[in-house]
Amino acid sequence: MMRYGKLFFIVLMFIFSFHLFAFSETVEDMDINSIGKELVLQLWADMKANNWMELQKQIAPGFQSIHQDGARDNQVQIELIKELNLSEYTLSNFKVTMEGQVIIVTYQVNVEETIAGNLIQKKSSMRLSAWLKSGDSWKWIIHANLVPLK
After folding, report:
1. CATH number at residue 71
2. Is the N or C terminus of the chain more exposed, i.e. has fewer CB atoms within 10 Å?
3. Under DSSP, is residue 88 helix (H, G, I), strand (E, B) or coil?
């Protein structure tokens, strides 16, 4: 009888450990998705509200973006954002992955905006942004927007 009790205990602990491990993986994935989506939502809210101080805090010194007309560093990107004149927008189709300390988010945006002085009519397009974990915060390090400017 004692032998079956030990076996039962070992099997029970194995099952408990397996479920705990499986649950922790799910929670981690959910957190990554939530964090990535929240970073994008906050970025767009700050751009729409002309919250330059928050954007300056979020953007990394080594930030780079790519647009159809070329690459930008952090300061030139902030200047571009200041000229956006965003209309109402919708964000959807988020895909979030994490590699090391970097969260990568692709998403779809539907917005009318001004880029490099060109009014871009409201239409749906894909974007890509990435953030690097820096202490307790996230720094925006990469952005891609390949919407045609004309």
Report:
1. 3.10.450.50
2. N
3. coil
Residue 40 within a domain: yes
In the chain, how many domains are there? 1
Whole-model pTM above 0.85?
no
In a domain, 3, yes or no: no
Say if 21 falls within a structural domain: no
Domain that includes residue 65, residue range:
26-145
| DSSP assigned state of 94 | E
Q: Cα(120)–Cα(57) distance, rounded to whole angstroms?
A: 27
Q: Name the residue type at position 90.
A: T
**CA-CA distance, 52 to 140, in Å (whole number)?**
14
